[in-house]
Each structure stands twice: as structure tokens, then as C-alpha cells.
Design brief:
2 domains; Arc Repressor Mutant, subunit A; 8 helices; four-stranded parallel beta sheet
Length: about 190
């Protein structure tokens, strides 16, 4: 992947996830951490990102652009993942559905299920299910991740303590052999 394409992908990931660490970016892009740091230097000089210790976050002015995106911006792949993942949810299940656009697509595709209990840390997922008579929706509470509808932090974690779900559906920021599944909100 050429540097310009890689930097564009980093920008897209940071718009989507707001903040990511260098190791997750490297794993996601299939490059070394040194390469990611070099790309982040270039993006920071152009004003697109703000480097942090071990990672980067999107520049707030660019973050405004991401808040204006709507449902039509969701890729066909994410829609399809949502449809397929929704097939894993059966009537009478107790499910945790995490936050993000993929999880929102799962929620959109389980609306007709019956006697399902869903706990989520995403107001958008809860909103998607709010008119579903066969689904009981519970939200965790917590600190809203800026620019999203995702709740994180100690309150969200405490709400989940001791609860056992039959199924858990979450989105991940990266997948690597050395680190497994990674997320940037925990």
C-alpha cells in the first residue's frame, strides 16, 4: 500500500473510531509501527490528527465532519455483516450488543425477534430497538465517547459486572495474530 493510500486509511479509521493506538493501526494496516508513526507525523503536520502517547486522535474540526455522516454512508459490507450477525440471535436470547455502526446494523436486523433481551452501551442501538415490542432493551449508562453514541467508562463496566449473556456481538478496531481482537474504547 502506498503512503498516500495508507494515510487516507488512517484518517478514515480515526474519523470512525476517534482515537487509535499505534499497534492497532499497524495491525489493521499490515505495516510496522514505525511506518504508522511516520504517517502520523505527516498527518499531524497537515492538521488532520493529534498525536498522543502511543497513538493518535482525530483533530476536532475533522471530527465534526464525521458527526454529519448518516446512515447512507454505511458500506454494503457493514450492512451485510449486520444481516449475517443478526441471524445468530434467536427468539428468547439474552444478548449484549456493543457500539458502532456494525452493531447498529445488527440491531436493525433483529427488530422482529420475540422475547429477546438486549443490553447495549450504544444509544443508537437502543434507539434502533426502541419500537420493537418483542425486545426488552437495557442500556449500561456511562460516559459518552465524544462524537458517538457509545457509552464507556467505569459505570458502563460496572453495569456489565456479573451479567452473563447467551451471546455477545461487538465490533472490533483490529485483528492481529499477536494481539487478537482489539478495540479502542476499553
Amino acid at each position: 500500500m502506498f503512503a498516500v493510500a495508507r494515510q487516507q486509511k488512517i484518517k478514515e479509521l480515526l474519523i470512525k473510531y476517534k482515537q487509535m493506538d499505534v499497534s492497532t493501526l499497524a495491525a489493521t494496516l499490515g505495516v510496522t509501527e514505525v511506518t504508522v508513526r511516520r504517517d502520523l507525523d505527516i498527518l499531524e503536520k497537515s492538521g488532520l490528527v493529534i498525536k498522543t502517547h502511543g497513538g493518535a486522535l482525530i483533530n476536532e474540526s475533522l471530527n465534526e465532519e464525521s458527526r454529519e455522516t448518516n446512515n447512507s454512508d454505511i458500506s454494503p459490507e457493514i450492512r451485510e455483516i449486520g444481516e449475517v450477525a443478526a441471524l445468530l440471535v434467536s427468539d428468547r436470547d439474552a444478548v449484549f450488543i456493543g457500539g458502532g455502526c456494525t452493531c447498529q446494523q445488527v440491531a436493525a436486523n433483529i427488530k422482529n425477534k420475540q422475547r429477546v433481551t438486549v443490553m447495549t452501551n450504544d444509544w443508537s442501538v437502543a434507539g434502533e430497538l426502541s419500537n420493537s415490542s418483542g425486545i426488552v432493551t437495557v442500556v449500561t449508562g456511562g460516559n459518552i465517547l465524544p462524537g458517538t453514541s457509545i457509552m464507556t467508562g467505569d459505570l458502563a463496566f460496572r453495569a456489565l459486572a456479573g451479567i452473563h449473556f447467551g451471546k455477545v456481538i461487538i465490533g472490533v478496531a483490529g485483528i492481529s495474530f499477536s494481539h487478537g481482537l482489539t478495540t479502542n474504547t476499553v
